[in-house]
């Protein structure tokens, strides 16, 4: 039996789109996603529900990979709205006191100085609760929005991201912990010997420093990553405190968990192991029958074309060009310039479900409404038991719970499942002590320079 406890992330979007793209049509969904109150309320629900952090995904373009146009996505409300996340997390920071505040920022389209500054600021104003989901970004529409003509190929994006992280973490450490003196008697604000330039010069990126934000309360804000490829896992093994995974089945999740730990050990990681959270869709009700009816209703709101639209975005391949009822060609994965690993995983899941080589229609139906994770459907005890099996089987260290309807899914999870997980000793009672998220989640200090300064 494991002695540690599960971590629970509330996985959401600053959008009308949730796990199922048709979620905005659900009567339990609050559609006012352009209002501050929506996020203030969502943050409070997540904190009250017993989650450890709220996490917002991101994409820097409306989906146009499917059929080469945004028309279909606009009409369906499918990931066409994506608000800037640090503005939103500022609202959530002010209306909560405990949960981690996670935002996705791209290493390919943002600048390291800007990212270091933005997350250091969030970390200060939230008293040590900033979490950065590091993505290298996936598709041509994002490049086009940022005026980038030539996109680096997949593994090179991670080489560049390594340099990006050298800069960001270096800038976070450019002020030593006790640099600020604020001495009115002597007129010394900060000790100049304790504020350092970075002078980083890499192959792709450079930065001088120091940062104009003093050392963040967490030292390094918590680093989150979701690489699924060999190179992506290596990057996560080096940098991440938390890893999101995309496994849809228990056996696959166990293998992926073991593989991620091996990669990190091979990379000589000295920090505590990253904690791995597979994405999960939970549909729970007071009885199994109610949960199944809720699930059937949710399924009725999404359709296979929307599934394929989301996948085209992830894979960066126009999936509308294949005959919809014929199996995909054998070289499909060779044409994927976005995430091969996620496509491979989903094609395997589709083949298992339909018992044949998948067609576009099969894949769309399989993916629509699930965001790539496992579906836990049942009464509170059933969902908690199945989650316990994953946790005790070393398939995960917790879950990233994706929303179906918002905020209904997180309310249901907090109301029905968290008490059952607590009863099983898998989730601790709320600890209201003022602590940073890094400390609260037992992630351990991270530092690369000024090692005595953690
Ligand atoms: C649960 C989960 C959430 C993710 N969120 C985002 C996101 O918000 N934005 C993004 O561009 N990519 C996101 N990704 C994609 C990953 O960053 C990564 O590119 C993908 O898993 C493929 O791995 P690879 O980059 O190693 O090929 C997510 C992946 C998973 C599994």
What does this molecule look like?
39% of the residues lie in helices and 14% in strands. The model has no long low-confidence stretch (mean pLDDT 92). The protein folds into 2 domains: 7-174 and 201-288 and 373-445, TIM Barrel (Alpha-Beta Barrel); 303-368, no CATH class. The chain contains 15 helices and 13 strands. A hairpin with a 4-residue loop joins strand 7 (200-201) and strand 8. The strands form 3 sheets. An 8-stranded parallel beta barrel has the order 1-2-3-4-9-10-11-13, surrounded by 8 helices. With 454 residues, it is an alpha/beta fold.
CATH architecture of the largest domain: Alpha-Beta Barrel
Q: What is the CATH T-level topology of the largest domain?
A: TIM Barrel
Percent strand equals 5-15%
Instruction: Just give the CATH class of the largest domain.
Output: Alpha Beta
What's the helix-strand series? EHEHHEHEHHEEEEEHEHEHHHHEHEHH
Mean pLDDT equals 92
The coarse overall form would be: globular
- Spatial extent as radius of gyration: 22 Å
- Percent helix, as a range, is 25-40%
Number of helices: 15
């Amino acid at each position: 039996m494991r002695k540690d406890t599960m971590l629970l992330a509330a996985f959401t979007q600053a959008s009308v789109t949730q796990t199922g793209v048709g979620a905005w049509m659900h009567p339990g969904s609050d559609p006012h996603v352009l209002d501050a109150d929506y996020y203030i309320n969502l943050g409070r629900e997540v904190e009250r529900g017993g989650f450890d952090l709220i996490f917002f995904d991101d994409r820097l373009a409306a989906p146009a990979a499917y059929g080469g146009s945004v028309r279909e996505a606009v009409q369906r409300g499918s990931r066409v709205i994506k608000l800037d996340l640090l503005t939103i997390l500022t609202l959530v920071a002010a209306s909560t006191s405990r949960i981690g505040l996670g935002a996705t920022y791209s290493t390919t389209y943002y600048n390291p100085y800007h990212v270091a500054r933005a997350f250091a600021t969030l970390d200060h104003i939230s008293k040590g609760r900033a979490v950065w989901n590091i993505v290298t970004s996936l598709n041509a529409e994002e490049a086009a929005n940022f005026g980038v003509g030539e996109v680096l190929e997949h593994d090179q994006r991670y080489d560049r991201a390594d340099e990006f992280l050298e800069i960001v973490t270096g800038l976070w450490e450019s002020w030593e912990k006790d640099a600020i003196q604020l001495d009115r008697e002597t007129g010394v604000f900060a000790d100049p010997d304790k504020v350092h330039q970075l002078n980083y010069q890499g192959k792709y990126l450079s930065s001088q420093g120091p940062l104009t934000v003093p050392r963040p309360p967490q030292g390094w804000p918590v680093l989150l990553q979701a690489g699924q490829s060999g190179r992506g896992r290596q990057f996560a093994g080096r940098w991440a405190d938390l890893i999101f995974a995309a496994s849809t089945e228990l056996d696959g999740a166990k293998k992926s968990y073991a593989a991620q730990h091996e990669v990190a050990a091979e990379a000589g990681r000295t920090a505590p192991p990253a904690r791995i959270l597979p994405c999960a869709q939970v549909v729970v009700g007071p009885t199994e029958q109610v949960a199944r009816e809720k699930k059937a209703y949710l399924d009725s709101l999404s359709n296979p074309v929307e599934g394929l639209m989301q996948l085209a975005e992830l894979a960066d391949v126009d999936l509308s060009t294949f005959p919809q009822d014929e199996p995909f060609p054998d070289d499909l994965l060779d044409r994927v310039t976005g995430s091969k690993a996620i496509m491979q995983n989903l094609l395997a899941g589709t083949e298992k479900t339909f018992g044949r080589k998948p067609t576009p229609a099969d894949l769309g139906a399989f993916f629509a409404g699930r965001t790539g994770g496992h579906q836990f459907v049942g009464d509170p005890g059933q969902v908690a038991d199945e989650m316990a099996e994953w946790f005790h089987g070393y398939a995960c260290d917790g879950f990233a719970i994706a929303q179906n309807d918002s905020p209904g899914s997180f309310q249901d999870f907090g109301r029905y499942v968290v008490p059952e997980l607590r009863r099983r000793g898998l989730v601790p009672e709320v600890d209201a002590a003022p602590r940073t998220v890094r400390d609260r989640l037992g992630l351990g200090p991270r530092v690369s320079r000024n090692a005595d300064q953690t």
